[in-house]
Amino acid sequence: MDFGGYTKKGSTLTFREWFLVKQKPMKGPEAMLKENPRIAVVKLGSIGDCLHMLPVMRALRRNFPKAALVWVVEEKSREIPTGQDGIDEVMVVDTRGWRSLLKSGRVISAFRAVRSFQKRCSERRFDWAIDGQGLIKSGLITWLTGAPIRVGFAREDCREGLNTLFTNRRIHPGAEHVVERNLSLLEGVGAPDRSVSFDFTLPPEAVERIDSWLQSKGLIVRPRVALHPGAGFETKRWPLESFLKLGERLAVEGIDIILTASEEEAESIRQVPSLKEGRWVWAPPFTLKELAALYKKCDAMVGGDTGPLHLAAAVGCPTVGLFGPSESGRSGPYGERRRIIQKACACRGASPYFPRRCRQAVGCIQEIQVEEVYQRVREILKAV
Questions:
Q1: Interhelix angle for 307-314 vs 288-296, to 10°?
Q2: Other CB atoms within 10 A of residue 128 CB
Q3: The whole model's pTM is what?
Q4: Is 129:40 a contact under the CB 8 Å cutoff?
Q5: Residue 26: how many CA atoms within 13 Å on its side-chain side?
Q6: Chain-wide mean pLDDT for the chain?
Q7: Residue 7 in contact with residue 13, Cβ under 8 Å?
Q8: If phi over 0 gives left and psi between -120 and 50 gives alpha, with beta otherwise, what is residue 316?
Q9: Quick one: average pLDDT of 286-311?
Q10: How many CB atoms lie within 10 A of CB 14?
Q11: How many CB atoms lie within 10 A of CB 263?
């Protein structure tokens, strides 16, 4: 079998020989001083994870203005990089589809799907690949790009240590927050400017729709506060009743309250009887870019550790983040215009990663009181 055209004394390499060749990084000044490198950035995961990677793309564009920047992402989060200024291409990879094929015993079909992705990468002839995920699957995808320089985290800084099998420049972040940890990867490609900038691009049509919707609801003059009760896991959810009490208290002070949720979350939340009695406006299931445009026009946003909280922070909306098991110092909204309320959780222990179920009778995030959150919102509103 021909592995990417590599040969040895006129014959094709074995898989083991090919793998070892691919592990060797390019050496010499041509590797680091290219004016127009072709760069693949691998960040597959959730909305929040992808938003935290956006400053890396901004920094790459500043450092290498002529570079071809490609973001490799899974389908569920493709809307984050799509349409962002400075990103030349978004490559969607279907790792779930690959696993599904393997589980069903369709090994040849899985191999063909992986080979198809590898071929697409080969056509782009990447010079560098940066793995911002630290998982085995992201490491594999980074390796499949074919880039001779593949930057990732050191073993102890990866969520799955075997990720380092697929990278050949490994970085110790030396930082706590995930945004700064991600930016540390730029050391692997010699990028000196690692300052933080999200600069989230909003399409004009999204802004226009939100302006029209706000006007139709009469939300024009008074301060606006968005509340997002949903979260991906139970341990990250502040009780809905607490959100509603907070909204009621703010509404009586003449503040417009907007409830946001995904389409799936909205279906269950609408069943709560007290929701119909409140003085707030329920937002329709906006697209991600429309939701970002809405948050940009709000004076504050309150939510748990979930994608919309990080989306609000990325567009400059002051945020109040409610944290239980996940560590806010590591994965909280980034920037100065934020307030954090965190309750200690015994379930997390020494691990930086959060448990999806809480062993306590009452989850730690449920210990956050409405009064605490109210005071943080008032602090923000006084400052704007």
A1: 50
A2: 27
A3: 0.84
A4: yes
A5: 20
A6: 85
A7: yes
A8: left
A9: 94
A10: 12
A11: 9
